[in-house]
Every structure is written in structure tokens, then in C-alpha cells.
UniProtKB/TrEMBL annotation:
Amino acids binding ATP: 23-30
Keywords assigned by UniProt, alphabetized: ATP-binding, Helicase, Hydrolase, Isomerase, Nucleotide-binding
GO molecular function: 3'-5' DNA helicase activity; ATP binding; ATP hydrolysis activity; DNA binding
EC annotation from Swiss-Prot or TrEMBL: 5.6.2.4
ATP-binding recorded as keyword: yes
Name of the top EC class for this enzyme: isomerase
Protein name: DNA 3'-5' helicase
Domain UvrD-like helicase ATP-binding: 2-312
GO BP, sorted A to Z: recombinational repair
PROSITE patterns in the cross-refs: UVRD_HELICASE_ATP_BIND
Length: 744
């Protein structure tokens, strides 16, 4: 079966009890967990129940299903009845549907999407503010703000409060604390306690969720655990249903998720993860220490996966050097345990999947004079690598979403094909944008610009690229010229003359001479017929119009699923607000962040992401986890994005707040421990800085290990010796010394 160290022990030896698999990046944990599942099923060792695999992403669910199915097929078994793969939220939803009356008064509940959730919490804060304006303003350092900046600062503070409050509410739910109990716990904290505010806003938020018949993701975990605790028969049913419970990405687990899985597992619990890739704590309730503690439990059998064939030996050595530096020389001693001593080993020369080899030292470092200079330099180098190695995949990683725009602008200016890896753009948003363009035109069919935009984005964008090879440059030039001529034709004539010419066909004299009798013109006239069909469809039945558009634009399976969801939502929206028109729907669909993005993201996640050679992927470091590319650029390795010292800049601190309130999330965590009678850190702000430094070290480690062959690290400096000074992180300076020594 071609198994390596750790993999072999898992597949051949684990047959029950507690088991942990610490796996280094690229260690093939999905491969070996799928093999173990197939081996257990083939030998009927999973009986009497099924094997449950809980993983983090919808795409990972599909990946596991396909791999397990393939492994079983190799053994002559065609069945999916012996295993179940799900996200934790999918599992919890299944549990809630068994007893919906425990959660809500009827079975008609909906899972709220992220856009609606943000809108809801914003309105909850508004309601709370009406009675607590003084509290809201208490944290703001108004002495440092001019009168005309106060209004902007209030707005900025409310926007930050949305995420802070959602995180605090998540903390309450993760610990099984209901709104009423939260308010009772916080009643003696005082009006300056942001946790006390959170308990009050939690009550408003919970009430509004219930009125709307909504559950959020934290509710799903909270209620699933509550149901299992209260209903012994249901718990027994799940314990009998699943003989083995496996948790993938266990380093990102949280307390309530761990408790649910332990209850169901009834002693047979397998956890797979990498503590050095625990990077979700700053924006979720995940707890880095849970998997580590599970591995250290005397009852747990541990099989370590330490070999990886993903990276070149040079990149493996750099990753290991970084782990060693953090553990032995980190300037903040409390941060030295942020990375565990799990060192990556290359595979043996006889391994069927060897480590990649290149003819040069493929790691470089660059430090620039500004973020714009860095972004420009990275894009130029990425374009150069794409031309030099057209068969290789390339990614540019940025630490935060707001840095992306500069990178994207340079990519577009240099005409570099790219894909943005998030839920609001690229392939994920293309379907919504196509629907938006068509509906926008149907709402105003006399508008020439809307017609032009629709034709270019929905009908002409990819129509004329087939059949043009790199060996036919003259044909390619001719095709490009014909596209330009066709665009000029669209701009020249009114919409009605193009769509409804007097004689039924466009006059020959009006057709550009370079297009007469061309395949482009024939194809174009066929598409005009489709546009006429769309215009003639009754616009009053909007949900059917959307499905008709998806049919006429020949949407693929994933696109049709998104169109069906939009159609269903629109029917509901229009029943709630009769004044909602086609133009309103078009406006919503064409927004970068719209109410349908969340579902579209889920659909594309299920399909899975595959990097394409010649197309530069742009993503945050967080989004890159679990992925790999031949060439990777790690950008903005600064003291703000990757702090090392306690006096570095910290993203969780807000300059417009008073000194004692600059890190509100740290105050919340400290106050929550206080009201629950847990051990409190003497300095909550200091502890928060230590946690941030530790997590950012792991984030950089994740970035380094995404690269298979070539790795470029970069940073910049700005505003030297000013309040908003940004300098290269100590990490990149340390790694530069190591890289320069080896590259000699």
C-alpha cells in the first residue's frame, strides 16, 4: 500500500481506544485515514456500527468520500453504508433535526449565512446603543480626535464591535452558557466591562435569531450538545450508530466540538492533526491546547507521521530551521512552545512519490521600501516565473484581505491571469455576476451600456478562444482583431437596432466587413436569438426567470445549484417586500459581497479547488492551509502582520481606544475566566500578545510549507520612527541570514 512511518502503524495496528496522529504538513493524513477506513470496512472490524469522519471543510468531506470509495472499490467493495463523512456542523444539524422541538418551536428553521449574520449583529448593537450610548463611547479616546473625526471613529468602532461581539457570543455558546445565564454571570462586572455588554447584546441577538427562525453555526454545536446531554436514548442511538469516531484537523477543534465527539465516540476516538498548523484561534473558538493535551493523555496511543514528499529538501530544511529558531531562540521565552518539535523528514529515495528536485537553490528573500513596491516586485517576479515555467502552479499569499487590492491592481495592470481564493470573487462569484448582468439588462433593456456589459461578460467572454493554438500567431491576432471589431459594433448601434432590425436581420451594409461570413458573426447572431428569448420571458415570475437564464446560459451543475438557491431566496424576498424589483435584485447580485455569496462559497468548496498552471492564485495565508503550489510568494512579513517582540504592532489593538481598553478581546477573555472562577492571567493584554505572537509564528510556518519547489519571502518598511512605523519582522531577518548563507 506504499505506507510510510506512522501511516503503516495506523492502518495495521489501530483497532480501538484513544489514538492520536500528529502529522506534519504534506504527510498524507487524508490518504492514510482513507486507507485505514477501507481496511477496517474490508475486514468488518468497524462492526456493529459505522465509521464517522468529521472534518473541517466541505471540500475535505468530498475528498474523503472519493478516496474512501476508490479504496473500497480496489478491494471489490461498492458501498457507502459503512462510513459517514461530515463537517462538525453537518453532524450537529443531523442531531438537531432528530429533536427540533428542543431548539425551536417548529421544524422550519434556517441556518443564517455570514452576510445576514453580520447585518443582524449590527442591528442588535444599534438596539443596545439606544439605551447605552455612554457605555459605547466609554472606550473611545475622544481627547485624541478632532470633532470631524469623531463620527467616523464611532462608525469604525461599531463595525469592529460586530466581530468582537460575535466572538464573545461564540465563547458563551462554546461553554454552554445561555443568554440569561450570561447576563447573571456578568451582572457584577460594572458598566466598563465589555463582556457585560456582550451578555446584553447576546440576549438581543438570540431573541432576534429565534423570531426569524434562524440558527447560527455556534447554535448548531450548542444545541446538539444540549440535546445529547438531555436525551440519553438519542445519545445511545448515536453511540450505537458509530463504532469509531475520527476527527480530522483536530488542532482546530474547540471545547464544545471535542465534547460532542467524545460523547458519541464512547471510547473509540481517533484524532488527526498538526499542532504547528493551529492558526484559527484569533477568529474562532478553536483551542490549540486540546489536541496537544489529547496526544499527552496516557490513555492515548500516538503514531507520528513525520515524512513528507511535498517540498524540496531545501524548503523542508527552512521549515525545520524556523521551528528550531522559535523553540530555542525566540526573544519572548513564553512563545517558545508555540511550535512543537515536529520536524519534517524527506521520504526515502525508493519512495514512489519522491520529494521534488530542482537545479538551483529555490528560496529567495526581498525587503522593499513600501507595500506598493513589494506588491509590484512580487507580481513582476510571479509573471516572470509563469513565463519561465508555464506548467507550474503559482500563489501569492497575503496576511490580510485588505492588502489584496494592491496586488490585484498590479496583476490586472500587467494582464496576469489570476484567481482570488475567497467567497466573494473569482469562480465563486462568476455565476452570481452572470445572473446579475442579465437581470440588470432585462430590467432596463433600452440601456446600451447594460447590453454591452451583459454581452461581454455572459455571451462573448470565452466564445472565441477555441481552436487557436500557440503555433498560429496570425490566426490568434485575427481572432483578437475580430473581437475588437465586434465590441465596436455593439457600441455603435442602439440596442433595439441590433436585437430587432427592421427586416428581421441586420443589414449586410451594417455588418463590419471583417466579420461578414466569419464564424464569429454566425455565433454572435445565434446568441442574439438567446437574448431575445430572455427578453420575451415573463419578468413577473422572477424565480422562473432565474432558472430560465441558467438554462439558456448553459450553466454547469454547480452554477445551476447556485441559481436554484437564488431563485428560492428571491421568491421569499419578494413575498416579504412587494416593492422589491428586478433592478434591486440585479444590484444585489452585482455587489462584491452580497447575500448569496455564502451559499455560492459552499457550492464551490464542495467542488474543491485545484490550482491551474499559468493562473496566479491570490489568497490569505489562512486560506492557503491544506493547499500547495509549485511556486509560493509569502508577502508582508512585517512586525505588524508577524509580530515577534512584545513592543511590536498588534492587529487586535485599536489606536482610537483608551490605553487600558486597546485590546477589547483580551479583556473579554480575562473577564470570562473571572466570572467562571477559572485561573486568571495577571496581565490579560500581555497574555493576548503572547497568544498572537504564537499563532502568527504558526501561520508563517503554514505559509512556508505550502511551497513545493520555489519559495519567495518578502517584506517592506514604512513610516520609520513615526507612530505608525512598520518594519520587517524579526522572522524574515533571521530567515534571510540562513537563506543567504545556503544560497552562496
Amino acid at each position: 500500500m506504499g505506507l510510510r512511518k506512522g501511516q503503516k502503524e495506523l492502518v495495521e495496528q489501530y483497532r480501538g481506544g484513544y489514538c492520536a496522529i500528529p502529522a506534519i504538513p504534506g504527510g498524507g493524513k487524508t490518504h492514510c485515514l482513507s486507507l485505514w477506513t477501507a481496511e477496517m470496512i474490508a475486514n468488518k472490524l468497524h462492526k456493529p456500527g459505522k465509521i464517522l469522519i468529521v472534518t473541517y471543510m466541505n471540500s475535505a468531506v468530498n475528498n474523503f468520500k472519493q478516496r474512501i470509495s476508490a479504496e473500497l472499490k480496489n478491494r471489490g467493495i461498492i458501498s457507502n453504508k459503512d462510513y459517514f463523512v461530515s463537517t462538525i456542523h453537518g453532524l450537529c444539524l443531523q442531531i438537531i433535526k432528530e429533536k427540533p422541538d428542543h431548539v425551536i418551536t417548529n421544524e422550519e428553521f434556517t441556518i443564517i449565512d455570514e452576510v445576514s449574520k453580520i447585518n443582524l449583529i449590527y442591528s442588535c448593537i444599534d438596539e443596545w446603543k439606544r439605551h447605552n450610548e455612554n457605555k459605547f463611547r466609554l472606550y473611545i479616546d475622544e481627547s485624541n480626535l478632532s470633532a470631524n473625526k469623531l463620527s467616523d471613529t464611532y462608525k469604525k468602532w461599531q463595525e469592529k464591535l460586530c466581530n468582537i461581539m460575535l466572538s464573545a457570543i461564540g465563547d458563551f455558546k462554546c461553554r454552554g452558557i445561555a443568554p440569561k445565564q450570561a447576563m447573571e454571570l456578568c451582572q457584577n462586572l460594572g458598566e466598563d466591562s465589555i463582556l457585560s455588554w456582550a451578555s446584553e447584546i447576546y440576549e438581543i441577538y438570540d431573541r432576534r435569531l429565534k423570531i426569524g427562525g434562524f440558527l447560527d453555526f455556534d447554535d448548531m454545536l450548542y444545541n446538539a450538545k444540549k440535546i445529547l446531554k438531555e436525551d440519553e436514548l438519542l445519545l445511545k442511538k448515536y453511540q450505537n450508530k458509530y463504532s469509531f469516531v475520527c476527527e480530522d484537523e483536530a488542532q482546530d477543534s474547540n471545547l464544545i466540538q471535542s465534547e460532542i465527539l467524545e460523547m458519541i465516540a464512547n471510547g473509540n476516538l481517533l484524532r488527526v492533526g498538526d499542532s504547528n498548523q493551529a492558526i484559527c484561534g484569533s477568529f474562532s473558538n478553536s483551542d490549540f491546547s486540546l489536541f496537544k493535551s489529547f496526544c499527552e493523555n496516557p490513555k492515548t496511543t500516538v503514531y507520528k507521521i513525520t515524512q513528507s514528499s511535498r517540498n524540496t529538501v531545501d524548503i523542508i530544511n527552512l521549515a525545520n530551521y524556523f521551528v528550531k529558531f522559535v523553540r530555542e531562540k525566540h526573544p519572548v521565552p513564553e512563545c517558545r512552545e508555540s511550535l512543537l518539535p515536529q520536524f519534517i523528514e524527506p521520504v526515502g529515495e525508493d519512495d514512489p512519490r519522491p520529494n521534488p528536485k530542482i537545479d538551483e537553490y529555490g528560496i529567495r528573500v526581498g525587503i522593499f521600501k513600501s507595500w506598493e513596491d513589494e506588491a509590484r516586485g512580487v507580481v513582476i517576479k510571479a509573471q516572470e516565473m509563469a513565463r519561465k515555467y508555464p506548467d507550474k502552479t503559482i500563489a501569492i499569499l497575503v496576511p490580510t484581505s485588505w492588502r489584496m487590492n494592491v496586488v490585484l491592481n498590479f496583476l490586472e495592470a500587467r494582464h496576469v491571469p489570476y484567481e482570488l481564493l475567497d467567497n466573494t470573487s473569482g469562480e465563486r462569484n462568476k455565476t452570481l455576476k452572470k445572473l446579475g448582468r442579465v437581470i440588470d439588462f432585462i430590467a432596463q433593456p433600452e440601456n446600451g451600456q447594460k447590453f454591452f456589459d451583459m454581452m461581454n461578460e455572459c455571451f462573448l467572454a470565452d466564445s472565441y478562444d477555441d481552436g487557436v493554438s500557440e503555433d498560429e500567431p496570425d490566426q490568434e491576432r485575427k481572432t483578437v482583431n475580430q473581437k475588437i471589431i465586434l465590441n465596436e459594433f455593439l457600441k455603435k448601434y442602439p440596442v433595439e437596432k441590433i436585437l430587432y432590425p427592421i427586416g428581421g436581420e441586420i443589414e449586410r451594409d451594417d455588418i463590419p466587413k471583417d466579420l461578414i461570413n466569419s464564424s464569429i458573426w454566425t455565433d454572435f447572431t445565434d446568441k442574439l436569438e438567446v437574448v431575445r428569448e430572455l427578453l420575451e420571458f415573463p419578468g413577473t415570475i422572477v424565480e422562473k426567470l432565474i432558472l430560465f437564464i441558467s438554462e439558456k446560459l448553459r450553466f454547469e451543475k454547480e452554477e445551476r445549484a447556485i441559481a436554484q438557491k437564488v431563485a428560492g431566496d428571491v421568491r421569499y424576498l419578494m413575498s416579504q417586500d412587494p416593492h422589491w424589483k428586478l433592478a434591486d435584485l440585479a444590484l444585489e447580485l452585482l455587489k462584491t459581497k452580497n447575500m448569496f455569496n455564502f451559499f455560492a462559497g459552499i457550492v464551490w468548496d464542495l467542488k474543491g479547488y485545484e490550482p491551474k498552471p499559468g493562473v496566479v492564485t491570490v489568497a490569505t495565508y489562512h486560506k492557503s492551509k491544506g493547499l500547495e503550489w509549485d511556486v509560493v510568494f509569502l508577502t508582508s512579513i512585517t512586525n505588524a502582520d508577524f509580530p515577534v517582540n512584545l513592543d511590536d504592532k498588534f492587529i487586535g489593538e485599536y489606536w482610537y481606544l483608551k490605553e487600558e481598553y486597546k485590546n477589547p478581546q483580551a479583556i473579554i477573555k480575562s473577564d470570562l475566566k473571572k466570572v467562571l472562577g477559572e485561573k486568571i492571567d495577571e496581565d490579560s493584554i500581555l497574555q493576548s500578545k503572547i497568544e498572537t505572537i504564537s499563532e502568527r509564528a504558526r501561520l508563517l510556518y503554514v505559509g512556508i510549507t505550502r511551497a513545493k519547489e520555489y519559495l519567495f519571502l518578502s517584506s517592506f518598511e514604512a513610516n520609520r520612527e513615526k507612530r505608525n512605523e512598520i518594519l520587517p519582522s524579526k522572522y524574515i531577518l533571521e530567515l534571510r541570514k540562513y537563506i543567504e548563507e545556503l544560497s552562496k
